[in-house]
Amino acid sequence: MFPRATKKTREVRFFLTHLREDNLQPEAVECYLSALLNAGKTVTYVLHAEIPKPRKYDDTYGPWHNALSPGDRDLFDLLQELRDLEVHRKGGTEVVSRIEMRSTFETRRSGPNTPIVAQYLAFGMYGSEVTVGVPAYLFQVGGAAETKAIDLFNRVNEGGPIDIVVACGQYADLLEGLVGCFVQALAQP
User: Labelling 123: which of 26, 40, 101, 180 has CA 20 to 30 A away?
Assistant: First the structure.
């Protein structure tokens, strides 16, 4: 049931996986974000086209959408709207990068001092944790956006930038839930 919509949710996950890669350039982030937003919007178009008659898309979509928490509903609507802004209008999504400091663990190579290092590690005297700067990408809605997108953006993150990976991960979950809701509705007589 709904094979094309299910395939589109896999596309969303594919682009999300690429957004999670380290050391992406800002333009690559913009490309993957655009592709993810397009695939996400297409999920709703394909569901609309695939639902067998006489059922109506809104009979399933409306209750699903209304059952979302206000935060999830606003995030879903925002990302759907941002796709429309990017494709049909002037744009309005601005990708911003910043450097975040994150802890990571460094792998040590074996050498003549390995037993000594192992003893220090065992006693907590020699840490293998290293703090490094990695880019984090955020998006914010710019002045070219329409009032609806700006209002949704302000509700989603109180007007500040939104972490792209976190928001797109939630969006992917919501899209999969939407398809699941349609599958479940079709299973009912």
Answer: 101
Distances (CA, A) of 80 to 41, 44, 100, 118: 6, 9, 28, 52
Distances (CA, A) of 123 to 109, 120, 127: 19, 5, 10
Helix (H, G, I), strand (E, B) or coil at 109: coil
> Alpha-carbon distance 169 to 183, whole Å?
21
The residue whose two tokens read 């494709």 is 87
Q: What is the pLDDT of residues 16-37, one digit of tens each?
A: 999 888 777 878 888 898 899 9
Q: For residues 136 and 163, give the distance between their C-alpha atoms in angstroms, rounded to a whole number.
A: 7
pLDDT value for 78:
87
Q: Are 117 and 109 in contact (CB under 8 A)?
A: no
pLDDT for res 170: 94
**pLDDT(79) > 80:** yes
Q: Which residues neighbour 155 within 8 Å (Cβ) at sequence distance 6 or greater?
A: 70, 74
Enumerate the domain spans of the chain.
Answer: 3-187
CA distance 24 to 21: 7
Distance CA 112, CA 114 (A): 6
Give yes or no for a contact between 34 and 86, defined as CB atoms under 8 angstroms apart: yes
Window from 51-55, 82-86, 137-141 with minimum mean pLDDT = 137-141
